[in-house]
Amino acid sequence: MTFATVVLATTLALAQSLLAQAQTGRFDRSELSSSMSDQLTQEQAAHFKSTVGQLGKPSSFVLEGKQTKGSYTKYTYRVSFADAAVDEAIVLDTSGKVAGLWFTPAAVATAPGDATALTLAKSLLRQAQAGHFDRSQLASQLASTFTAGAVTQIKEQVAPLGSPTEFTLENRTKDASGTTYYYRVAFADTGIYEELTLDARGKVAGLWFKPAR
């Protein structure tokens, strides 16, 4: 095993450890540089926890990039979970201490059908806010669960949010039930997640609105 391989393996282990610490909001400050330790307040640790704490156990870490500038080296890992992916960036100083740490939603590569799904997601949110769905767009099983009471509950959840300012595709998964799109929807004062599953015929087989983490 070469020296470079050992360094990368050590850095990977550190990335995995830092993610686990971020998910609990408690950090081993002996791994941090003094300036990083000062910057990592309780509020910042709580923010990290709110960002990645509910994602569960990661399924993979892939090194996406390595950049060296002066006495600092930045490693960026793509971390995959069951329903999401994030980019974890770590900056190490020459002593190997952590001088920077960020978690950001991973960019999702575009794929055929994305534009159609986005248009539908926006339309379904408007329908949910109005309390009236175009049932010709729904798969039969979902249509049967969208009773008058269920639709009213959804309306009460999303109508007060107002007009969305941004839709961001954070993940896309595919299984036997169809393709599920995970959108983060921003509003003026808050945000939600909209999960939309389309079956093989393009019908809406699943639709959920959840508070943003």
Describe the structure in your own words:
The protein has 213 residues and is an alpha+beta fold. Helix 1 (3-24) crosses helix 3 (42-52). The chain has helices at 3-24, 34-39, 42-52, 114-130, 140-145, 148-158; strands spanning 60-69, 72-80, 85-92, 98-105, 166-175, 178-186, 191-198, 204-211. It has 2 domains: 3-105, Nuclear Transport Factor 2, Chain: A; 114-211, Nuclear Transport Factor 2, Chain: A. A hairpin with a 4-residue loop joins strand 2 (72-80) and strand 3 (85-92).
Overview in brief:
The chain has 213 residues and is α+β, with helices and mostly antiparallel strands. The protein has helices at 3-24, 34-39, 42-52, 114-130, 140-145, 148-158; strands spanning 60-69, 72-80, 85-92, 98-105, 166-175, 178-186, 191-198, 204-211.
